[in-house]
Amino acid sequence: MTADSGAAEAAPSSYRTLSARRVTSLIGAGVLLVFCTLVDILTGPAMLGMGDVVQSLLGSQSASAMTNVIVWDIRLPMSLMAITVGAALAISGVIMQTILGNPLASPYTLGFSAAAGFGAAVVILTGFTLPILAWLTVPVSAFGATLVSAALVYGLSRARGMTPEVMILAGIATLFLFQSLQSMVQYMASPEVLQAIVFWLFGSLLKASWDNLPVTFAILVFCVAAILPDLWRLTALRMGDERAAAVGVNVTRLRVRMFVIVALLTAGAVAFVGTIGFVGLVAPHIARGFVGEDQRALLPMAALTGAIVMTGASILSKLISPGSVIPIGIVTAVLGVPFLFGLIVMGKRRYW
Amino acid sequence: MSLSTQNLTISHGSLTVLSDVSLDLQEGQVTGLIGPNGVGKSSLLKALAGLAPSKGRITAHAAQMNEAQRREIVAYMPQDSSAGSSLTLLEVVLLGRINTLGFRVGQDLIDAVEALLDDFGLAHLSHRTLDAVSGGQRQLTYLAQALFREPRILLLDEPTAALDLRNQLLVFETLRKLARDKNIAVVVALHDLSLTAQFCDQVVCLCNGRMDAAGPPADVLTKDRLARVYGIAADITSDSEKGLRIAALHAL
């Protein structure tokens, strides 16, 4: 006991203490998210006064029409999209890390982001638009390409038994394939088109609107509902395949089902706002550091953490160069990396 | 509940590991499964547990059962417990009842897990992660998980491989008591012939892809058989007071 008493401080004395600690973490994260969201809505290139924004949010008659438009039609969808996408990517990250048994896994490990980027780049290059729903062309193409890459990874892995190693290999191969195709499209594009493609690839919340927010949100809700019945089975997977099977988990079926859900969730998250990186990698690790491996607590904690990181990045993206908004995809890593470093260096308990 | 096999054949791809195994595993008894490395002890346990395919019949209480049905009544503990995990000991044991766990876990269930951990001297570690405890403690944790399933049939693959002598005795005493009190069939694959002689009611010996012998320890564990199966010279003594004693002397 003496040799490792340093680690003992992290171990709670009873299950009740542990549960209380988890609930406290979740509530704390919730409060922080509400605070970050308010700050996010209050900041922006339009330099609105704090009082005006609050009045507009509360639906006060005295708010000017311009303030109302900025707050309700630009900032609010952006903030809510940040929360939705952050939560979706973080949940995808948790599931990916769990089913692949790998701390480096993220929603993008298996090539989904490269495929989405390719899908978007192709229609931006060709100028093809969907009839009637022209504004949906790029998202639908990105979404479709993501699902195609998922089908490719699934098909390749299926041939060799759906083990994590095979899935990662198939995923990396798919990643390189779509990255090359995407580079080819970029190479063929004119400078103006190239700029549009690169801007999409950065990932930006500016594309958020009341039209696309409900779509991403609905996909998130659907996927979470599909994950909930398997929380214990996902927790069991952290014992390793053989031991999970020994307690009665059909490991292959679980892995396939979760893979499909993650593909859908990731496609829904990136289709409208582009490939925003890092949240899906870092949020699960931060959450794990607070609540441990039990997926009943880890999944909601990761979702909150992802939303916080995303919202924080959104605030930062508006503060770095006043009067403009830097694409959030550039900022997420800048904000997330120190978090992760801190966790690696300061963390008392081992969480992988 | 008793478990029987008739003409069971187990293959890995084109390689036949075991063929024609006909066994009778009795409830209330501890059965020792012995044989040299690679003979198919683990494969047999996995097949019995419904986790690996096999040809032939496997019946429980005379009723033929498919793999899914067997998984319901059997608890199987895999061999290697060297890999750590970031799950806590309590979580690992709790997962033994994964099929009945709801979103909320009642205090009575937690108390039951902690009592079980206490039986193996692990109560003070219940909220440590598996990475942070020793290999032997991991093995005991996984054993507690298998017991927590409250199975009718318990299949254990080398449950004492990483344990000190006291814990080896403790585990086998627990298993024997469990078999008697709860009337379950316990099957243990192991290499320690002394423990086999001391604690098993029945011994099944595998050799060269077949079942070589099955019966009471005194009948199965003979000098000739140990020489043939393991290639060892052994000193075997038996008296009414101390029971069967086996000392391995040297490799042949």
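qc> Chain A is about 75% helix and 0% strand.
qc> done
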